[in-house]
Specification:
Length: about 130
Amino acid sequence: MDGAGLDGVAERREASNLQPLGENYKPMSQTVPGSNNTENKGRRFGGRTGEPFTFSFEDRTIEAWPGESVAAALLAAGEVVLRIAEDGGARGVVCGIGLCWECRCIIDERPNVRACMTQARENMQVQRQQGLG
Ligand code: FES
């Protein structure tokens, strides 16, 4: 960040011939829960609710909350490498919406399960996938 704030963003957009920011544009800091913004009341912004539970990833115990995907829980726990590709490269969440298949893991002994499309469940066994699994 260059510390220029919203004015800096507007100037860069103008310089790059992009459309100017609309009058309804608000920085993220004005749309998060807990602010006085009532426009987004009732929308969920990643807040964790309910009773947490755990599942395993390799040798770790990962905490998750109801409704979270395996990928979300792993990312929140700092696990970014979810599989090792055939060429030996580390792979992890790319799209988060089930399109790229880069988040494939072994879940409960089933290979090639997309972590971003799988809801976390208590006591599930998740392993980093090596190659094609
Ligand atoms: S992150 Fe792209 S399919 Fe899961």
